[in-house]
Amino acid sequence: MATFPSTDWTRKSGDILAAAQLEPVTITRHKRPAFVVMSFDRFERMNKPDTRRSHTIDETSAQDLAMAEAALARFEAEPEA
User: Which residue range is the domain that position 12 belongs to?
Assistant: First the structure.
């Protein structure tokens, strides 16, 4: 992650924004992280609700269990590279 002191904001804002398009950028004050600048796309992805769920084996459907067992069998049958 790129880091810029807050004093660079006015002089190097173009460089900071260009860097933020690639990855989040840390802005420091008194050599300590104070802000993060990032692209709006990254911000939206970061704040998107997580729809993944975890299940115990007892909660897993028979169909999902069968798919997992078949995938494991295929994996075990693959020759080692």
Answer: 1-47
